Amino acid sequence: MTAKIAAVLARWTAWIPILAVAVLVVTFGRDLPPPLVIISGLLLAGAVLAAVHHAEVVAHKVGEPFGSLVLAVAVTIIEVALIVTLMISGGEKTQALARDTVFAAVMITCNGILGISLLVGAVRRRIAVFNPEGTGGALAAVATIATLSLVLPSFTTSRPGPQFSPAQLAFAAVASLGLYLLFVLVQTRRHRDYFMPITTAGEVIEGEDHLEPPSSKAALTSLGLLLVALIAVVGLAKGVSPAIESAVAAAGMPQAVVGVVIALLVLLPETIAAVRAAARDRMQTSLNLALGSAMASIGLTIPAIAIAMIWLDGPLLLGLGGTQMVLLALTVVVGTLTVVPGRANVLQGGIHLSLLAVFLFLAASP
Fold this sequence. Notes:
A middle domain of Talin 1, two-stranded antiparallel ribbon, globular
């Protein structure tokens, strides 16, 4: 009996996502009492850990840099679905939800995931080493797309307020998607070597020497379970979001905090995967996850929201405020100084994490 229990527990990465989706189906669209909120929260955490496991299996099968794209794109697609769903049902209070969530995702990835990865890698190896060519190009693409989609709406004059006109929104959507696809082409084809992990000694790592790649069947199974886990993560996050909104309102914090909480929940799988990669001296993989997620969050979300605005009522507020622009500019400057040398220590990791702390504090107390 003990052996059977151990075998079942060993397959928790398979049954936790399925159980989470089952609970999601039962509770979808309902007001959850406190006990169900707690259960949903626990299953949400389990689905996050399962998503990380299956993403790593798929990444090991396809290799880098394709593996880093799997989790980034999958999470972003689900994030887009969550934003659109909340905007449809939320009314006027969700007009800035896309902006708040996307900006939070950029700050969390470019400061949180990047910072903690650098810190973990530098603590273990004293110096975290990565490819400045690929990482610098990724940061430049993130800065360009973020400025185009989140900064310019605050300065255009065709519409009142921080929003694009329909033609401007269409142009920004096409430009963002085009830049993202160009980056993916460069990352996976033309300059793939710029995004391959290297050791502290500067040696390129083509694969894990001590582990055999999983079979095609196992990889496909993990890919399916990864999608199930991500659906469960976002669905359960939506289910507990009323409790989050009530807690935010009770604490007297602004509505933008809801977007921050959503981004934190959705990006948990990528954060854990990036930290694990950094702990294995795969710093480039961690940075691929961080910056690739930031780019996908904007490059896929803005076009999707632009399409959704065909049937959504009300304005779409995309432009950042002055405080947010300062934080974005500071993140880009600090990020540039971090990636240009191709080497970083605990100082750079600490600086990025301090910027994340400033963002979180000002989001709660603007």
